[in-house]
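Budget justification aside, the reviewers requested a transparent look at the raw inputs and outputs of the sequence design task funded under Objective 1. We therefore reproduce one unedited record. The lines immediately below are the structure tokens for a 108-residue chain.
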């Protein structure tokens, strides 16, 4: 994992996106339907569920409502990118304390 503050600032995980204040854009490769998640709330959801925040893994947690309705099955063709666009989905965020502890853990 890249150390916070070192090297090129490219987030590869939901946590890193939050640490870098980048919004997380999830787009359906099939129909290009997309949503922009507030990264702190998204990280907290992943943390509570024990999900891996690596984008390569995290993308499998999302399914497209539009395609799924049309096809009658959960369509998981999500692609994750970073954006500075305004978040369209803001989930419950961690407390300030929880977030600070996570940052401390990350910096080591
Ligand atoms: Zn879709």
């Amino acid at each position: 994992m890249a150390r916070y503050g070192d090297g090129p600032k490219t987030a590869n995980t939901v946590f890193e996106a939050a640490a870098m204040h980048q919004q997380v854009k999830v787009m359906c490769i099939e129909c290009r339907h997309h949503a922009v998640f507030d990264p702190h709330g998204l990280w907290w959801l992943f943390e509570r569920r024990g999900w891996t925040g690596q984008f390569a893994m995290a993308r499998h947690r999302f399914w497209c409502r539009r395609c799924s309705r049309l096809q009658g099955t959960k369509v998981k063709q999500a692609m994750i990118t970073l954006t500075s666009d305004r978040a369209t989905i803001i989930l419950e965020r961690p407390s300030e304390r929880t977030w600070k502890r996570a940052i401390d853990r990350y910096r080591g």
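The radius of gyration is 14 Å. The mean pLDDT is 93. Computational costs for records of this kind are itemized in the attached budget.
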